[in-house]
Design goal:
Blueprint (H helix, E strand, L loop, with lengths): L4 H16 L2 H15 L1 H26 L3 H19 L4 H21 L2
Helix pairs in contact: 3-4, 3-5, 4-5
């Protein structure tokens, strides 16, 4: 006779498998794997675009006389991006920090228009 634990274990294993095979996770992993092929190209682009966006946001913050914490936030994001890239961190770190710093810079640029 079978115990009642076996079907419950099988159900939980199936749930784990379906959770791991979600489309969003596999899409993100595939995206990172595609970007790791051209790692040094990504380094050049993230340094250029991240620094330009940080500089533009800093310019607008200083023009408007906004609080100093906004400038510190923009500069911290841009510098974290550059440190990560120059230190040759994994592609996942580079992409995530680039998206964070660009998002923060863009948001504060738009706020201070």
């Amino acid at each position: 006779m079978e115990t009642t634990l076996k079907p419950s274990v099988q159900i939980s294993e199936n749930r784990t498998r379906t959770f791991e095979s979600t489309n969003s996770v596999s899409w993100y992993k595939q995206f990172i794997e595609k970007l790791s092929f051209s790692y040094f190209g990504i380094i050049a682009m993230t340094i250029s675009i991240g620094s330009i966006m940080g500089g533009l946001a800093a310019m607008k913050i200083l023009e408007n006389g906004a609080p100093i914490w906004q400038l510190a936030l923009v500069m911290a994001g841009a510098m974290a991006n550059n440190v990560c890239v120059i230190g040759q961190a994994p592609t996942k770190w580079v992409v995530n920090l680039f998206l964070f710093s660009t998002g923060v810079s863009t948001l504060l640029f738009i706020i201070n228009l």
